[in-house]
Amino acid sequence: MTLNTILRFSRATTPEEMFTGQWQDRATRLDAYKPYLDQRWQEGCTNAWKLWEEIKEQGYPPRLRQRPRLRQQESSRQAPTGRPPPAIGPRRHALDPHAPDALPADDRLHLKAVLANCPDLTALSEHVRSFGHMVSDLQGDQLPTWIETATSTADLPSLRHFAQHLERDLDAVIAGLTLPWNSGVVEGHVNRIKMLKRQMFGRAGFELLRKRVLLYA
After folding, report:
1. In angstroms, rounded to a whole number, what is the distance separating the alpha carbons of residues 97 and 136?
2. Residue 15 pLDDT exceeds 80
C-alpha cells in the first residue's frame, strides 16, 4: 500500500470511510433494485437465490445470459469495407496434430498456402502430426525413431530441444505413450486431499485432518 492509503485508513472513523472512491461508488445494474432488496431483507428473506429470482421477474438481466449474447455480438461483427478479414495464424492449422482432411475446406486452402511459403513450418507440421498420432494411438515404440528424426533437424532448434528433453526420462515417456493406464484416479485423490486441507486450514490439527482423509478416501 502507498503512504496516502495507509494515512487515509488510519484517519478513518467508520468502515465506510475506508472504501471511499473504490468500486463501492460505481454505478451498477443492481442499483435500481437495491431498495427492494433492502426491504425484503428487513422482512426476513435472506435467501440470495430467491431474491435473485424476484428481481429477475422485475426485469433484472440474468447474468448467465450475458456471455452468450456477447459472443453473438462478436461473431456478427463485419470487417471494415475495403479491408480483408484478419488472417488466421499459421499455428492454429500447421501445428494441429490431426490430419488436414479433418479441417474445413477454407482452412485446408489456408493451410496449403501457409505451408507453401514456409518449408520449416512444413517440416514442423509433419513432426507434430506424427507425435500426435503416437499419443492418440499409443504407439510409444515409435518414439526413439521420432526423437532421432527430430534431433537431426538443424533448422528447428525448438523441436530439437523438446526431443532432447524427452530422452532424460525416455522409459517413462515410452510407457506413457504405450500403456493404457493414466494417473487420473491418483490426481482425483490428490485434489480431494487438497480440498480437505483448504477447508481445515487454521481450524484443526493433523489428527483431525488424517481422520477426514481416511474417511473420504
Report:
1. 10
2. no
